Amino acid sequence: MSESISIDPARGFVALPAQVLDLEISPGAFRVLTHLCNLSDKSGWSWSSLEQFAAQVGRAKSSVSGYLQELRRENLIETTPQTRANGANYRLKIRVTFWADWVRSRADCGKIKPHKTERRVRPAERPIVKNKAIKTPSTPKAVNGFLEKVLKAWQGLTKGQPFGQFAGDASPALLADTAKLLENWTPSPSVSKQTVQSKITDLWSSLGVDTPGPIQQSQVSRCLETRSTQATLQALTAQIRQSWQTHWSKPPTPTQFNEMLSKSKAVASTDTVFRLIQQDYNRYLAQYSA
User: Fold this and answer.
1) Which residues contact residue 276 at a Cβ distance below 8 angstroms, ignoring those fewer than 6 apart?
2) Domain carrying residue 202
3) For residue range 196-229, what is the model confidence (pLDDT) as tens digits?
4) Signed CA dihedral, 197, 198, 203, 209: sign only
């Protein structure tokens, strides 16, 4: 047996939901939360005084008080002061907010046989992964043959090259075809900020994902910066609804959202293809006419 710790079965053990490992709290607050779970009854309540609790976790009362405030801010605990007959506070009644649900879920775990294709525990903040059911075609289905031919010609010149560089000279025929295409193309207007804001808000609200204002504003700004169209927003919301899992409780990170947006712009409409061709054409002219 390892000599690094003395096992005392009389002290019991603490089983925590895996989501606790994803909490962005300080190590001290995590230790205090673990002790609270160990002390809690089935409803999540514990009644130790601040002095007793500080002694149990080996921290000063002021430190423990700070950790409790941190846990309250994260809505992990609720506290109710208890008073003496003279009105003086003498201890806190503390409830771990998720403990009652955790106790019930553990009790139900043995009653419900999980589906063979599912895991028993799935983290709520599981990162977004590429959904194999969602394929990003190189060109939208609506693209006609001539437009696709021009796009593939430009892709052949830029494939494997640093951004803004070309593998060789564009043929006169490609330049002429591109100029003709762009001459007859009218870009679709970008959507307004109000439209994007409404789409983003409705999306996360319908999925039950709590998305703070700054995160929503960041997503709205990214859509506006990339000149998203109505078709792009429709593709974006459809993609997220299809891939989102009900146990994911946090919104995607900025990197994940950018990947989703890029994929949506690639499948949105022929307008995207025109924009790609225009970008390569303009870069080529700027580089070779200099």
Assistant:
1) 151, 154
2) 130-290
3) 899 899 999 888 888 888 898 999 988 888 777 7
4) positive
Residue 70 · residue 19 · CB < 8 Å: no
Q: Measure the CA–CA gap between 64 and 46, rounded to whole angstroms.
A: 15
Distances (CA, A) of 279 to 169, 196, 208: 16, 24, 38
Question: Domain end: 65, 87, 102, which one?
Answer: 102
Place of tokens 């859509």: 223
The rounded distance, in Å, linking the Cα atoms of 139 and 1 is 62
- Torsion angle defined by CA atoms of residues 155, 163, 229 and 202, in that order, rounded to the nearest 10 degrees: 120
The residue assigned the tokens 């640093």 is: 162
Q: How many domains does the structure of the chain reveal?
A: 2
CA proximity to 149, closest of 277, 281, 16, 1: 277
- The tens digit of pLDDT for each residue in 103-121 reads 888 777 655 454 554 444 4
160 occurs within a structural domain:
yes
Cβ–Cβ < 8 Å for 69, 27: no
- Whether the Cβ atoms of residue 71 and residue 77 lie closer than 8 Å to each other: yes
CA-closest candidate to residue 183, choices 230, 150, 227:
150
Please write the tens of the pLDDT for every residue from 79-88. Answer: 887 777 776 6
- Cα separation values, 130 from 43, 162, 204, 216, 227, Å: 39, 25, 19, 22, 24
Query: Is residue 231 helix, strand or coil?
Result: helix
* C-alpha–C-alpha distance, residues 190 and 232, integer Å: 10
